[in-house]
Amino acid sequence: MSTQVPRLLAGLVDDAAVFPPGSATPPDAVAAHRAHRAAWYADLVGPLLVPASTVVTGGLDALVDRAEGFGVGLIGDTGIARIPLALSFLGPAGIIPRQVEVAVARRGEDPQPGLAALRALVDGLDGVDVYAEIPLTFGLMGALDTLAEARAAGLPVAAKFRTGGLAAELFPTPAELAAVICACRDRELPFKLTAGLHHALRHLDPETGFTHHGFGNVLAASLAAAEGADLTAVAALLTAADPRPLVEAARIRRDDARPLWVGFGSCSILEPLTDLIRLGLVKGGNKA
Question: Where in the chain are the domains?
Fold first, then answer.
């Protein structure tokens, strides 16, 4: 582990360069990911996230050296049923699937059928973590119960939630997100987040008018939840505009493994890295 990136932040940011708004081409994304993995801040970076649709059309085949052990997170944009097909393309190309992430339902749909299909898929995988993206709407708590039961049975499954997007309803309120974090805590269920977490602190995007959650807020809230904080206290951390209590919460736990929150995908690695340096949570530069 690098002395510049503390254990608490290890693997916090998955590389979602090919997804909007970054929308990098696969060649550019692969080249940039190699540079991130070789950089002084490499411990901060998770796998490159790639759509299943790109994999099945051969979009990565010529970009990866079979001997390098290039790891990716597979995003199931083609649906649960076609994930095995996408995975079948990775091995021959010398690509290692580190994780699979897929939506189990649309907003307003019952997530249970999708979770059943996903559980059947997980039974056939070996050593791959699977994240079920669950809408923050109808059937949420029952879905978390189902995931917790599967995890208790030994399956490598966890939850994933959307915290932003192109519509206001895709941004959960602090109270809603706090309730989800506490619900995962109560079920000993790890979770990932996606979308909207561009900066460390909660902020208003002047272009869209949407208020985005800060990943520093989420980190402090997750730490507090893991230590038993109630919903009100967790929500207060999600709304905090003062960075000092958020930074202090992370600073005193910098050598600990991160509880509950697995991490988030970002189309830019440098944006969250820059914020972490500015907050003093990561030491910038090439020297330890």
Answer: 174-186+196-282
